[in-house]
Specification:
Layout (H helix, E strand, L loop, with lengths): L10 H24 L19 E3 H10 L1 H6 L25 H4 L5 E9 L2 E9 L20 E2 L2 H14 L5 E3 L17
Parallel strand pairs: 2-4
Antiparallel strand pairs: 1-5, 2-3
Helix pairs in contact: 1-2, 1-5
Length: about 190
């Protein structure tokens, strides 16, 4: 038995995850450029860096490979925000941040199948960080290619994870990657 659920991830799978992240960044770059005027995301903006985030074990393996000292000796950020934030709200693993973190802030779109009057219908949804709403066309007026489409990268990650774990889809909480626990928030007693 391994110490962590990602210790047995083959190195070629870790390299594949790294490359998938690079490709996601390449796909996102033209959108970052096109929407530069409206994007308020900067180092220290951590509104989307929520606590309790889980990732596939294949992504956790990449983080573990590249940040062994941080995970062994570092202390996670206090509960309530992502464990990988530093005291100024910057990501300590930015280059290896999970896929989901790479699309935050961008105008997003995704397709869902919904039932309407007994028939399946494909419905498009769109969203953007509230801080990034101003400074450009409203989301509903943007052409589809001006938004990052969610789905294809997630499907590739899920398929690769399934190939590694026999279809279990194992995930791990980012906070659990640290050897040491974070200081707990103490709420006032009323």
């Amino acid at each position: 038995m391994t110490d962590k659920p990602f210790d047995d991830i083959p190195s070629e799978v870790v390299a594949w995850v790294d490359r998938l992240h690079e490709v996601a960044d390449e796909v996102a770059q033209p959108l970052l450029t096109a929407h530069a005027e409206r994007l308020r995301c900067r180092a220290g903006c951590s509104d989307c860096c929520s606590d309790g985030l889980t990732v596939f074990t294949i992504e956790a393996a990449l983080i573990a490979k590249r940040h062994p000292s941080l995970l062994a000796e570092g202390i996670p950020h206090a509960e309530g925000a992502c464990a990988f934030l530093d005291d100024e709200g910057r990501c300590r693993i930015y280059a290896e941040r999970p896929y989901v973190c790479r699309t935050q802030g961008l105008p997003l779109r995704w397709l869902d199948e919904e039932e309407h009057d007994g028939a399946a219908e494909i419905v498009e949804s769109r969203d953007i960080c509230p801080k990034n709403e101003q400074g450009g066309l409203p989301l509903e007026e943007l052409p589809a290619e001006a938004l990052f489409t969610l789905g294809p990268f997630e499907q590739r990650l899920a398929a690769r994870q399934s190939a590694v774990d026999g279809g279990e889809g194992r995930r791990v909480a980012l906070r659990s990657l640290f050897a040491q626990a974070a200081p707990r928030k103490h709420l006032p007693v009323l």
